[in-house]
Structures are given as structure tokens and as C-alpha cells.
Write a structure and sequence with these properties.
273 residues, two-stranded antiparallel sheet, 12 helices, flat, transmembrane helix
Length: 273
């Protein structure tokens, strides 16, 4: 025999009292209807009311996006610095050689080719991200036209320039600076890299370093223990990196034993000698 709950006693949506509740918020526990139920990227199947879903501590990926949205990253400052250096170098060289149509003057003027791209990149113009990839090729072709004896050097410079340009082009932080759409999975990877239990990352670094410098093994152990205590997959946002914390802890414990074993072997050989 089933007991029916009177309609007046059934849960109602906190925002729409005339609608029946479809569940409760994973954070505050208030009732929400089907229209108010909100999922948040990176938190699995948890559902929240609209008020909690908009909180920075819940919708942490959107908070991360807004934190870096339109703000210059390290690559932008580096490109701006290199652009300024090229301008200063060109001005100094022209002051020495003058504007005569010599090979040195033409090569010096060639340094001004990437300046407009660098300025546009620093100012956040989207076309500059693509022009940054093409610029090394243009400079190499122009340099080869002026002087054909340095093709190996030109190819080397183009290769290095393309490597840096492609690295910048793929950088998520740089994409946010240019206000480009970034999928939640990529934002999740950025958050894991920079903010998800950084103590675990330090523990693994100290653990590997302890293999060569055993005196920092206690630091690796302490960081590993602290990082393990912080791991909480059910937290908002979830805190992970358990494996890195364990790695740092294990390496911090094992490295002194390994060094002690090596020293024992050395002392034993010296005694026998």
C-alpha cells in the first residue's frame, strides 16, 4: 500500500513556487524545478540551483575564463619586449650606418618587418596571432633575396621562429588574452595545471630532486602528506592530484634510503681496501 503525499506538502521550486520540485541543489539544498536545474562544467552530474551555479566557487571554470579574459599573458609581454628591442636595435644601427642603400642598411631595415605584427599582438589584435607564424618565413625570404650565402642560418632562424610562434598560437592562456572561445575541457586542463592542488605538484618536484639532493627529501615528504590531506574529489571545485602527491611522498621516503645504501657500499669498499 502506497501513501500519497498531499499536493500541499510536496516540495516546490524556491524560485517558482507554483512548480513542483525536481530535485535539490547540491550546494545549498534548496528545491529547484526542471527549468532551474543547472549543471556546471567540470562537476559531473551534480545539479545546482541557478543562484549557486553562478557562484565563482561553483562555476570555477567560468571564473577562470573571466580571470584571464583579455588580460595580457607572458607571451604578449615577451613579444612586446622583443618588438621594442628590434626598434632600438634598428635605430642604433641606422644611426651608425645611415640610410644609404647598402647591404647593411637593408638588412637593418629588415628587422622592422615584424614590428607592426608585434605591436598588434601586444594590443590583442587577433590577426596578429596568425601573422606571427608567417613573419619568420617572410623575413627569411627577404633575407635570402638580399644575401644568398646565409641560407643555413636563415633556415635555423625560421625553424626557431616557427616553433615559438606555434607554441604561442596553441597556448590556452594566450587564447584567453585574445578573447577566443576555449572549450570547457581545455579550461579544465588549464585549471588542473595551475590551481588543482599545487602542493602535490611541488611534492613530485621535490621528490625527484631528492633523488639527487637527499637533504630536501623531508620537504618532499611534508608536501606529499599535506597534498594527500587536501585531496577531495567531492569538493567544489574538486581537488585531485593524488598520484602526484603519492609520488612525491614515496620518492621523499625512498631517496634517503638509496643514498644511505650507496654510502654504505662506498664505506664497505673503503674498509676492505
Amino acid at each position: 500500500m502506497s501513501l500519497e503525499v498531499p499536493l500541499s506538502q510536496q516540495g516546490r521550486c524556491a524560485v517558482h513556487p507554483d512548480l513542483p520540485a525536481g530535485g535539490t541543489c547540491s550546494r545549498c539544498g534548496s528545491f529547484f524545478c526542471a527549468d532551474c536545474a543547472t549543471s556546471v562544467s567540470g562537476l559531473g552530474a551534480r545539479l545546482y540551483c541557478q543562484a549557486c551555479a553562478a557562484r565563482p566557487d561553483v562555476n570555477y571554470l567560468e571564473t577562470l575564463r573571466q580571470r584571464y579574459w583579455g588580460r595580457r599573458d607572458g607571451w604578449a609581454w615577451m613579444v612586446g619586449g622583443v618588438t621594442l628591442l628590434l626598434c632600438v636595435t634598428t635605430a642604433a644601427a641606422l644611426a651608425q650606418w645611415g640610410l644609404r642603400a647598402t647591404k647593411e642598411s637593408l638588412f637593418t631595415l629588415l628587422l622592422l618587418v615584424p614590428v607592426p605584427v608585434g605591436v598588434a599582438f601586444f594590443l590583442g589584435r587577433r590577426w596578429a596571432r596568425h601573422a606571427l607564424i608567417v613573419t619568420p618565413l617572410v623575413m627569411a625570404v627577404a633575407a635570402d633575396f638580399l644575401h644568398r650565402d646565409g641560407r643555413f642560418l636563415y633556415a635555423l632562424c625560421v625553424s626557431l621562429g616557427l616553433i615559438f610562434a606555434l607554441r604561442i598560437h596553441r597556448d590556452v592562456r594566450n587564447q584567453l588574452f585574445f578573447r577566443l572561445p576555449v572549450p570547457p575541457g581545455t579550461l579544465q586542463a588549464l585549471w588542473n595545471e595551475r590551481f588543482n592542488n599545487p602542493m602535490a605538484r611541488q611534492a613530485s618536484r621535490f621528490g625527484f630532486s631528492a633523488l639527487f639532493m637527499p637533504m630536501i627529501a623531508p620537504v618532499a615528504v611534508i608536501c606529499g602528506v599535506v597534498a594527500l590531506r587536501r585531496v577531495d574529489p567531492k569538493a567544489t571545485p574538486p581537488i585531485g592530484r593524488r598520484n602526484q602527491a603519492l609520488m612525491g611522498l614515496v620518492l621523499g621516503l625512498v631517496s634517503p634510503l638509496l643514498w644511505g645504501f650507496v654510502l654504505l657500499l662506498l664505506l664497505t669498499d673503503r674498509i676492505h681496501f
